[in-house]
Amino acid sequence: MKIFARSAPKTEAAHKPALDAKEVSFFFENGYVVIPKLFSDEEVVAINAAVDRAWADRSIYNNLTISAYTGTADYIETYLRHVDPAARKFRHKLNHLYLYDPRVFDLIYSDKLYSILAELLQAEPLLFNGLNMEHGTEQRMHIDTFYMPPRTFGKMVATWLALEDIDLDSGPLNYYAKSNQIPAYKFSHGGIWAMQDEMPAFDAYYDRELANRGLKSEGFCPKKGDVFIWHAQLYHGGGAIKNRALTRRSMVNHFWTYEDYRKDAVEVRPGKFMLRQDRMFVAPNFVERPQIPSGNSEAK
Hints:
By secondary structure, this protein is of the alpha+beta class. The protein has one domain: Jelly Rolls (Sandwich), CATH 2.60.120.620. It is 20% helix and 21% strand. The protein has five helices and 13 strands. The strands form two sheets. Strands 1, 2, 3, 4, 5, 6, 9, 11, 12 and 13 form a ten-stranded mixed beta sheet that branches. The chain has a three-stranded antiparallel beta sheet with strand order 8-7-10, with no helix packed on it. β2 and β3 form a beta hairpin. The longest helix is centred in the N-terminal third of the chain and has 16 residues. It starts with 20 loop residues before the first helix and ends in a 25-residue tail after the last strand. About 4% of the residues have low confidence.
């Protein structure tokens, strides 16, 4: 497995510099870079505690949303406060945790990460999406621009933070190094956002490109606090879960550039921006007051 990672820093001061030229070059060539132990154990504990508080908060003041029971017949998009706490045992995606806990936002936009994002985007980052997961997703291989293409091609990065040591059997993050170099597939509308009925043609195109370039799938099994940062066009997905008793706690955040979304941005900290909440994506099948599903044993 070809992994490029800087040495783990020993102190907060070691975080100050952004990536060096070699790391930046590796990112654009391979589509990712790994930063070991970018977040301390204490910071990871704080994020996991925010997740716990959000699940326990059944009040109307908890406006976090969730994709619950993913991969089952009970799948639903709704407010977290309306979902049975038992849903936590099943695959799910908790959305935008940074809207619930200010410290989570501060950690996402801490100088040690912000400077790296700015280096890779070559612009000021704009936080627009966040997902917390506690199980492997087993999501099909995909490109993030299927769902959230930036206004300027390539001007998006994503971060994947390990919130515990990740076991290979828990369904790791899978990816194809250098797949970001494959020319983007254009759907019939002329753009790169996905049309489901055209996915077989996309799959055929990517299968050919991957084979012609000799690219192979790799799995990422990080330690707690490690961060994997990937390019907008990296082909990636969730690996198969071989042991469903294992968790895979992680937090993913996506960033566009402030320059592309000035009119849609709000300044949350001095010089640091996120997408306005009324501009955030809402699933078309979102239900405000659902019938609470009981869960499906196939999910876990």
